Amino acid sequence: xxxxxxxxxxxxxxxxxEEKIDIEFLKRGxxxxxxxxxxxxxxxxxxxxxxxxxxxxKVNVNIGTSGSVTDIDMEIKxxxxxxxxxxxxxxxxxxxxxxxEIRRILIEASKPLPFGTVPIYQAWIEGVRKYGGMGIPSDWxxxxxxRHLRDGVDFMTIHAGIxxxxxxxxxxxxRIMPIVSRGGSMVTVWMLENNEENPYLQHWDYLIELxxxxxxxxxxxxxxxxxxxxxAHDFLQIEELVxxxxxxxxxxxxxxxxxxxxxxxxxxxxxVADVKLMKSLSGGIPYxxxxxxxxxxxxxxxxxxxxxxxxxxxxxxxxxxCYLTPSEHLSLPNIEQVKEGLIxxxxxxxxxxxxxxxxxxxxxDIDMSIARARLNWNTQIDLSFDRERVRNIKNQFGDAIxxxxxxxxxxxxxxxxxYIEGRxxxxxxxxxxxxxxxxxxxxx
Length: 444
Ligand code: SF4
Hints:
alpha/beta, about 10% strand, two-stranded antiparallel sheet, binds iron/sulfur cluster, TIM Barrel, 10 strands, 19 helices
C-alpha cells in the first residue's frame, strides 16, 4: 500500500502524465521512498507534486518574516510571486510576529502549492519566552511540530541529524564557521545548555507516528551544512549525513515520507560526489539542496553562485532545489529579489534536467530555438520565464526591422534567409527523432 493516505490512482496517473513516466515507475518510487508527494491530510486543495528519482527537478521558495522585518503584506506578495513564476513548493521561515497567525495566512497565500515550515524556529523563540530561557522541556519542540501538522503543513525541516555529541564536536572543530544553520544553532544551544540529547531524536518514534498520521514529509535538516567552501565535505558534514540517512531509512520502513537536506557552500568539483554519496547512503531518498553555492565571494549575486551549483547538483540527481536570492547573507529579500532568485533556480533546475532527463526535458529548448531562428518574437516571449522583462529588454533601444538591435540589419537570420528557405517546415518531432538517433550535427 502507498504510504500516502490522500493520493489515489487518478492523482498518480496525472502525475505520471505530467512527468512523462510510467505510473508503475511512480508507484515503485513512492513505495521505496525514492519519490515523495507532499500532501498533509488536512489539505485537499494542494496541487500534487512528485519529488524524487527520475522526475523533473523541483524548486522551492523560502518566504517569511524575520526578527527585524515583520511585514506580512510583503510576505503574502512574495508567496504570490512564487506561485505566478512557477515555484513548486513554498516554505515559511518566519521568526518575527505572531508565527501561528503568519503561517496560516501564508498557507492560504501559497495555494495551491505544497507548504513547508521549520518548526524549531517557533519552538525556540516561543519556548524562550514561555520558559524564561533554555529550560524548555524537550516535548515542547514536538508540540510545535504537532501545531504545524494540524495547520496542514505538508513538509517540515526537522533537525534530527545533529546529535549532542556531534554538536560538541562542531563547536570545538577547526571550521571557519562551526554551524551556519539557524535551526541547527538553536538545537545546539538547547542541547549544550541542558546537556540533553537532541529533542527530535529523543522523541523520534513519536514524531514518526505524527508524520504518518498527517501524511506530512520529514525533511531532515542539515544543521552542519558547510557555510564556506573551505568547510565542505569535512567529517562533521558527512557524519550528519550518515545520521540523516539512517533516520531516513527508519522513517521509510515505517511508512513515512522523507527527504534529506544538503549543502550549503561547496566547490564545483565536490558536488557530484556529494549527491552520489547521499543517494548511496540513503538508498535513493529525495535530496533537497540549498544551492550549493560554488564560491563565497558572490555577495549581492549569491543567486548566481547558487544556480551554478544547483545545475550541477540537479544534473547529478538532486531532486529539489531551494532557491537563493541576491540578498543572501545580506538581508531579508524583497519581492523583486524573490522573483530573481526563483527564476535563477528554475533555470538551474532545467539546465540540470537537460542532463538528468535528456529528451524528456528538451522540448521547450527546441521550441525556443525554432522561434529564435524564425525571428518569432512573440513565441520567444511566451516561452520565457519572465515575459515582461524579455519584452522590455527587446524594446529597450526601440524596434529593429524583424531582427533585434544587437546586429540590426546584419542579423544572421536575415543575411542567410534566402539560402535557408524551407526550413520553416522544421517540426518538433523530426528534430527530436534526429536527437534521439544521435545525429546531433545535423548533416544531411
Ligand atoms: S539581430 Fe543578431 S542577436 Fe538579434 S536576432 Fe538577429 S542574429 Fe540574433
